Amino acid sequence: MSASPVVDINEHLRLIGTAHVATASVEAVRQQIEEYEPDVVAVELCKSRYDALV
Fold first, then answer.
1. What pLDDT score was predicted for residue 20?
2. 16 has which bridge partners?
3. How far is the C-alpha of 21 from the C-alpha of 38, rounded, in Å?
4. Is the pLDDT of residue 2 over 70?
5. Contacts of 46 (CB under 8 A, 6+ apart)
6. Structure confidence by residue, pLDDT tens digits, 25-48
7. For residue range 10-25, what is the model confidence (pLDDT) as tens digits?
8. How many other CB atoms are found less than 10 A from the CB of residue 23?
9. Residue spans per domain, the chain
10. Which are the contacts of 12, defined by CB distance < 8 A and separation ≥ 6?
11. Is 41 helix (H, G, I), strand (E, B) or coil?
12. How far apart, in whole angstroms, are the C-alpha atoms of residue 52 and residue 9?
């Protein structure tokens, strides 16, 4: 079972709650991606994290 909350909105959309700094969240997201095999993964970031990536 995942440490992060997982909500299936419909058969095409799944939301995964995370904590940006939690190793358990990283593993939970990795597991969900491997199991669900999505075509697209979207990530919500605050401006400072976005700026650090681009």
1. 76
2. 6
3. 23
4. no
5. none
6. 889 999 999 999 999 999 898 899
7. 999 999 999 878 899 8
8. 9
9. 6-53
10. none
11. coil
12. 30
Identity (one letter) of the amino acid at 42?
A
Residue reference for tokens 């993964």: 41
pLDDT on residue 3: 61
Which tokens go with 13? 């959309």
| pLDDT score of 1 | 47
CB neighbours of 22 closer than 8 A, spacing ≥ 6?
A: 3
d(CA 17, CA 19): 7
* Nearby residues of 54 by Cβ (< 8 Å), 6 or more positions away: none
* Token representation of residue 50: 């976005």
* Distance, CA of 36 to CA of 38 (rounded, Å): 6
Token readout for 5 is: 């909350």
